[in-house]
Amino acid sequence: MAATPSPVGDPVEEPVEEPTAAERPRRAAYRRLPVQQRREQLIAVALELFAARPPEEVSLDDVAEAAGASRPLVYRYFAGGKQQLYEAALRSAASELTTRFTVEPTDGTPTQQLGAVLHRYFDFVGEHAAGYGALLRGGSVVETARTSAIVDDVRRAALRRTLRHLGVREAGPRLTLLVRSWISVVEASAISWLDEGRQIPADSLCAWLVDQFVVMAAATAVRDGQTAEVLHGWLELETAESPAGVLIARLRDLGL
After folding, report:
1. pLDDT tier for residue 10 given thresholds of 50, 70 and 90
2. CA–CA gap between residue 77 and residue 86 (Å, rounded)
3. Which residue among 79, 105, 120 closes a domain?
4. Owning domain of residue 51
5. Of 108, 121, 190, 231, which has fewest CB within 10 angstroms of its CB?
6. Cα-Cα-Cα-Cα dihedral sign, residues 177, 178, 183, 184
7. Is the distance from CB of 217 to CB of 134 less than 8 angstroms?
8. What sections of the protein cross the membrane (predicted)?
9. What is the distance between the alpha carbons of residues 211 and 203, in angstroms, rounded to a whole number?
10. Secondary element (H or E) of residue 2
11. End-to-end Cα separation, the chain, in angstroms
């Protein structure tokens, strides 16, 4: 099937043969879109497919069919084939996810602010389950150094954002390990939340993750002076009604 470029949108496709009966419904759904809109559509469709199945099991034909387009049209936008489309899809998900936790909260205690960031994070997870799943489910043979770097960039941004929230300029190895470990807990919790059909309300999950951070910080503070100093500064700003204050009261009720 030959294609000639269009200056305002998708290339004009010139069929060389009549479509089969199976093809007619898909071809009938085809409509020309502006270049950027078509690219975004293909990426969105790819994210859905990559999240539902291992990327190596997704073909460009699958993407084209789901998008109501043709395989040559997909190649027109992603000349590098499935690998280029996979990387573009991951970058799209990574970019939007990163924006969710780079906006600095200004109201509330430190743990209330941390909870606000987590709510934005889980808003993204809930609204874009496919993008999140495609971004963080590893183990695919389609993964390369570039795709791994995309995911690592998100984690580094989360690390920087959390340390900034803690008021830390230079984190020592134990404090860095604490934050990295907690970020892994957040990621694993989000994936499990999606896999289990979101049985736990997002608000409850975010509150639990804030508690996890406080408890992990307390355990680390026992062995690390920098973490102890940071945690002490945080707790001085907490109130009886804040997440940390409520957690401490409940632990006391348990005799801990």
Report:
1. low
2. 13
3. 79
4. 2-79
5. 108
6. positive
7. no
8. none
9. 13
10. strand 2-4
11. 72
Residue 255 φ/ψ region, left for φ over 0, alpha for ψ in the -120 to 50 degree band, beta for the rest: left
Give the whole-angstrom CA distance, residue 223 versus residue 211: 19
Number of domains present in the structure of the chain: 2
Q: Within 10 A of 248 (CB to CB), how many other CB atoms are there? A: 17
pTM assigned to the model: 0.76
Give the span between the Cα atoms of 174 and 176, in whole angstroms: 5
Question: Is 32 a residue whose pLDDT tops 60?
Answer: yes
Residues 41 and 95 occupy one common structural domain:
no
Residues 225 and 160 both lie in one domain: yes
Print burial letters for 191-230: b (CB count within 10 Å at least 16), e (below 16): bebbeeeeeeebeebbbebbbbbbebbbebbeebebbbeb
- The residues near 174 (Cβ < 8 Å, ≥ 6 apart) are 220, 223, 224, 226, 227
CA distance 180 to 159: 7
Of 28-42, 69-83, 148-162, 207-221, the range with the highest mean pLDDT is 207-221
- Identity of the residue numbered 254: L
H or E element that contains 3? strand 2-4
Half-sphere exposure of 168 (CA within 13 A, CB side): 22
